[in-house]
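Internal ticket #5521
Category: modeling
Description: The requester needs a full-assembly model to guide mutagenesis choices. All entity lines are attached below as received. Residue total reported by intake: 576.
Assigned to: D.W.
Attached entities:
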Amino acid sequence: MNLLAVDGHDKIRYRRLKARIFQSTCCGLVWMCVALLAVLLFHVASEGFAYLNLDFLTNNTSYKPEKAGIHAALLGTLWLVVTTAVISIPTGVAAAIYLEEFAKKNRINTFIEVNVANLAGVPSIVFGMLGLAIFSRLFGLKNWVIAGALTMSLLILPVIITAAREAIRAVPNSIRLAAYAIGASKWQTVAAHVLPAALPGIVTGVILSMSRAIGETAPLITIGVPVFILHAPGGLNESFTALPMQIYSWAAMPQKEFHGLAAAGIIVLLTVLLLMNATAVFIRQRAQRKLKW
Amino acid sequence: MVKLNVQLSKAGSAAPDAASSTQGAPAAGTLPDGDPRILEARNVTISYSGNPAVRGVSLEFPERKVTAIIGPSGCGKSTLLRSFNRMNDFVEGVGIDGQLLYRGIDIHDPRVDPMELRLKIGMVFQKPNPFPKSIYRNVAWGPKINRYDGNIKQLVEESLRKAALWDEVKDRLDDSALGLSGGQQQRLCIARALAMSPEVILMDEPCSALDPVSTSRIEDLIFELKKTFTIVIVTHNMQQAARVSDTTAFLELGKLIEVGETDQMFTKPREKRTEDYVSGRFG
């Protein structure tokens, strides 16, 4: 009904129709993703739930499926992730601060910047080879926790650096100038104003990169992390195995029970991931509230 | 009233020559007592990546007076202002020729620490830029990092009182500064600068983002502050320059066209271009 007597009434209706089609296409695609994810989760849960009990968490793996548990792999993953975080977060954030706040714009720094971004796209197996050559062989760190953590750190550093740089760059320059204008040094300005303001963005980058580290298998295989290991690591200089390795090895077994164990392992992996992300989101929310933009 | 004239370098006969001003201990100052010049620019040229924004400007700023720098957009007035506390150090590709003196000391002397210089010469920016922290911490942070050993609480209150903001915020010092209105934020930024007890306050179009009521409050504040501080204010609002300043300098395309007492500048300018500008014929 052309109540307002607008010229080109039909054209407007056509435009609105186009907008609706676009909107429903986007909506449909989102729900398709959610549905796929739900099916996957349901499948994993239905297969693995029966195997999920306390024994599964406290036993180490075994050739007998009824005795096999995920204890060593779970603790191995925790060792790996915590060590990786300790190495990569300070290094990555420091590198980002340097590149954004201190580095002069010259060719070398531009070269570094471009290559940090490129490294984020390098396949993980390449980092595995590097870890094998340098950490395992050259430094003699074998297939220990520390070798795995250093390799994982290499893998996720580009992600952390890139995310942290974006976050630091998003802090308005007026804040820096305000601090300089009352006699603050560059470091005081960064520590008191830039970093707190950039923290939510940095934490987001850390979540993403840690999620990647916890799920990676290829670099661990390359540095020779064993799949059959009967004790949890007790230190950085002990060999270990990780959840994705354990899941992979069970899934490759011929017995059907092991497939159920693999599904249960996936549930454990996803739970660890979810807990980690929840912690990070909590930290981010707190930081944002404190920021009071 | 100290008269300011367009001064070529050679005209500054009373000033110590450039060499002697850089030889004494920088902290001591080399001007004779009672010399009213606190800031001075001598034949200053500032360029961005080779393009000059300020061309050969020589200006003197008397102590405890308000000096306004006016001129059309892009005339280099902000650039000149920012060079006095070396904020241009943070801009890449800036080149400065000529001399900038604070109490007779060349501020680019390698013995002058720019961080210390900024304690003496504070700054208020065009857009209010409080830290995204509480009102209290906005004022207290500067003294804290500079190891102020008096009572910081008292200093915060004094600074907020001097900035005519205390009564409005005394009950919510721990609230975020970003909850304040634009005018209040700007007065908070002034309080933040005052807390460092500077001698000079540079103001870079401090009212351009504010409504008329907030603007008039800031202008009242400037009247109050000039009893204690030397103020240099850049503004593109000529009425504001006429209202608040004692002397006015007019810049155009990076060149100093005329400088004089504000009354004279707005009623009987010597230069035709000044007259055109202040009477609103262009700009």
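Resolution: model delivered.
Comment from assignee: Chain A has a mean pLDDT of 91.
Ticket closed.
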